[in-house]
Structures are given as structure tokens and as C-alpha cells.
């Protein structure tokens, strides 16, 4: 089913429509951070903790930076291989190849499938945060930002615009010398944010994913964030917001699919391209002409 | 002018049309790499080298990861401040806020302005590479990938899919202990790529941006890549390819602008949203309905 989505199979829409009413129960966790901070190892350890609580776990490892090679993705999956024979765990990698509709929507589609399949927890792993097109905050109910000591996390977090995105900040490889300084810096920067009324105060936690230190507390903090949102009535609000964003991205994708496919095959398009190449016109004038010709507004009734 | 583009001012299209015929002479360099590798400092030193050759330099610092805060961008600009009084240098930062048309196109627009203004070299700085929506390879004639020693560059480069994008690999902060190992690893990974016939073999260079070590050689290597492409007839090919991509992105943006603006204001859209919220329909069915109603294919003549 997820492969059909990745391949943009025509039947995937019908399948998603059938599954959609069965989704909406899972808690979706986003795990993000720079390459090399140990996200895959951490998720491997998180799976272990959630399984101890007898929760079914689905993982979607997304690589928005790689339109090219799938090597690393294979590596990530191997790292989580010890769960391969566990029926309560489903792991799937997605790269930005193939999907016409963009990686963000394909990931959302995959999450709907895992949700409808009855997974209690869905973990979406991705590089970076707030990356324009692929924004984990548009997919997850709770987002964990992973960093490692001694890389100037605080400043880089602001630089990457992720301080506003994170619900839980995880300082991994916390056996490294600068761990305490990183925690202190993150705590301070979170303190400087204006707190939302009745809102969640982001937590800063230390982990050593390799030996599992701190991961039980991390798993429980995610679950307490979940409880907090449910009790404050924030969960319905968040679900509604994510659903609205999904609808918007579907509108964008379907519009582009319909118009651009037709456009790129059209006589108008080919003529415009010739005119650009022969410098008879500039690309802006040419694009305006093509869009005016081909893309018409329909009925509003 | 660039501010008008960023603000998506209606007049910016007309201005770009007027400027376009005067563009096409600049050599566009992309500088990319993870946060913290010293890109801004390196560019500051590169400006200095190109100025020694009496070339006019324009810099566009792009932050695709930050829809939120502009703090770091200010920092970057401050770092290059020593060139502020030099008439031959123009520095401009862009974040992903505001532009309806996407950061990639806004950056291309800005590059057209700087090109038409007579800059010989345009440097586009951005985080990461091959990042889905914002792909530096769609904007630059030559791309430098900056990394620092001891971060497992080689493997991370493959992981991030950047090995295929880089023309020059720069190991910055090369006074660090693992510098030689990083160079060796990158050289080896480049050696493993199948070389393109008559193509450029990517170079690996060491720099210390802070004191300028290796930056003169770097500047000259960029220029020799430029010469190489011109001599091999690759430059025209590349320009044509980038122009085609620009045209495509204009088509996408104009289509979405026209359709989505109308759509999001329409009765059909509001009804669909209500039906989703009341669970009368799923978002996929709703989106298909709205697109069918509103987005019509026009004439192909």
C-alpha cells in the first residue's frame, strides 16, 4: 500500500479514501535533527521502550535531502533491523524520488495507512526541521529535536528556526564533555520564548541512544505530552489543523497534476520554450502567456 | 528591486521582464553545507579574493530552513560587513517568508537582478544541498560543498545526496586534526563516481576561512571550472537547462497563484472544508471535487 503511494499508483487514492475513516487514533511523533546526531539509533531505542508498554509502533524514515541515492536509507533500516521480526513494529523508508505530489504528502499518506492499520505510535524521522517544503510540524503531533553536545546547538537551533518547532529537545551522545552546557543553553533559549498560555513548556532531555540511557524517560515524556494535549483539548485542535494542511496540499498537488501535465504536453508550451531559447521572449512573459491560455477558472457553485 | 521581489510586489514581474535581456553574463557560484561549517566566513574571504581580481561580486544568502526567525541572517550579514562600503560588492539575505512563489524562484529572480546590474560573480549561500524544493543545482553554474573535518563527511555526503551535486568540495577548518582523513575520504568517494565523458572531475580543497588559508586557490578553482565549462561548450548547455527550470517554476507558481487564490476564497472550498470537519467526507474526495469544479483546462492553440 505504501509502495503504491510512493509509485503514485492511480489506485492509491481509492485505497486512501477507504482507509481514511479508520485513521485518526495514532499519536504521531516527529524526530528531527542534523545528519550524524544519531536519530536512527535513538528511534531504535524508542521502539524498544514503546514495545515494553505493548504499543504498536510504525516508523517512517524520510529523506528529503536525497533525490539521488538510497544508500543511507538502507543503512537506517538495517540499524532498526532487530525489530524486523516483531509484528508490532513496521518500518518504512521514503526518499523524495518518484512522488509527483511531494514528499510531505506521500509521508502523510503513509502515516494514514499506518494509523488505520492500528499503530498506536507513528514515528516520522527526518533531517532538519522547518525545511520549507517538508515541515515536520505539518505532520507530527509532537516533535523531538535531536542535537549533540559541542556543536553550538542553541545558536544553530535559532539559526535553523527549529526552536519554535520543538516540543522536546534531546541532547544525544550526552556522555560527551559539553553535554551539560548544551542542556543549559537550550533551557535558557526556551526560557526566552514567550510561553503560550495553557501551552506546553518544551522539555530538554539527555540521552545516549547507543546504550539506551535516558530513552525510557524520553518515551514517557512524549506520552505525557500526548496526555497533556488531550487534557487541554489541544489534540482535536492540532488534528484539525493538520487535516486542513493535508487538504491544502492535496488541492495544490491535484491542481498541478491536472494543469502541468496538460501544459507540458501542449503546443502553447512548446512554442513558448522555442521563443525563450531563441531569445524572442523572456521566461516571465512566456510563462504568463502559457498560464493565461491553458489554466481557466471554473465554476464556484 | 530585490525587496519588491521578496514582497511579491505586482510590479516585480514587469521589472524582471525589463531586466532579463541584460542578464546572462554572470558566473553563479553555489556555496552550501551544514550549519556551523563556516560558510559565511568562507564567502567573506572569497569576496576578498574576487575583488583582488577586480570582479564585481553579488551575494545572496538564502535560509530555506527558516520560515520563522531572521536572527541568524542578520548575523551572516554582519560577518560580511567589512565589504559594506565597497561599491563592487552587494550582499542580500533572503528567508522563506513572504514569497508566494517559493524561495527558489525568489532567489533566481534576485540573481537576475544582480546579473543585470553587472556583477561578474554571484554567490548563492544556502544550508544543505539537493533539499527537495530548494535545490542549489537548479540555480548555480558551479557548486561548492563545504564540510569540516571529523564529522564523517564522506558518508554524510552520500547520505545527504550531495556527492552528485558538488563541483568543488571544500574541507574548511582544515587546521583540525582529521582534515587529511576527510580530504582522503572525499577524494576516494569522488573516485568511485563514474566520471562523465568530457566532464569536470570534482576537486577537493582545504581552507581555513578565518585566516584565508587556501581561499585564493579556491577562488581560482571556481574560475577554472567556469573556463572549463565555456571551453567544453557546457556553459550554454547549463544556462539553457537553468532557464528551462526557471520557466517551469514560473509555470508552477503562476498556475498555483491563479487557481489557489480563487479556490481558497470560493464557496466550493468552504463547503468542502465543512464536510471534512464534520467527517461527512474525507480530504481526498473533497480535494478532487474542488479541483474538478474550479480548475478547467483552457485552449491549446
Any idea what the CATH architecture of the largest domain in chain A is?
A: 3-Layer(aba) Sandwich
Q: Mind telling me the C-alpha Rg of chain A?
A: 22 Å
DSSP, total strands of chain A = 8
Distance between the termini of chain A: 35 Å
| Strand-pairing-aware structural class of chain A | alpha/beta
Query: Quick one: CATH superfamily of the largest domain in chain A?
Result: P-loop containing nucleotide triphosphate hydrolases
CATH topology group of the largest domain in chain A: Rossmann fold
**CATH class division of the largest domain in chain A:** Alpha Beta
Can you describe this structure?
The structure is a homodimer of 301-residue chains. By secondary structure, chain A is an alpha/beta fold. Chain A has 2 domains: 2-248, Rossmann fold (3-Layer(aba) Sandwich), CATH 3.40.50.300; 266-294. Chain A contains 11 helices and 8 strands. Chain A has helices at 2-6, 11-19, 39-52, 71-79, 103-116, 153-159, 179-192, 215-231, 234-264, 267-277, 283-294; strands at residues 27-33, 57-63, 89-95, 121-127, 142-147, 168-171, 203-206, 295-297. Chain A has a 7-stranded parallel beta sheet, sandwiched between helices. The longest helix of chain A is centred in the last third of the chain and has 31 residues, at 234-264. The two termini of chain A are 35 Å apart. In chain A, 50% of the residues are buried. Mean pLDDT of chain A is 83; it is low at 66-75. At the A-B interface, helix 2, helix 4, helix 6, helix 9 and helix 10 of A face helix 2, helix 4, helix 6, helix 9 and helix 10 of B.
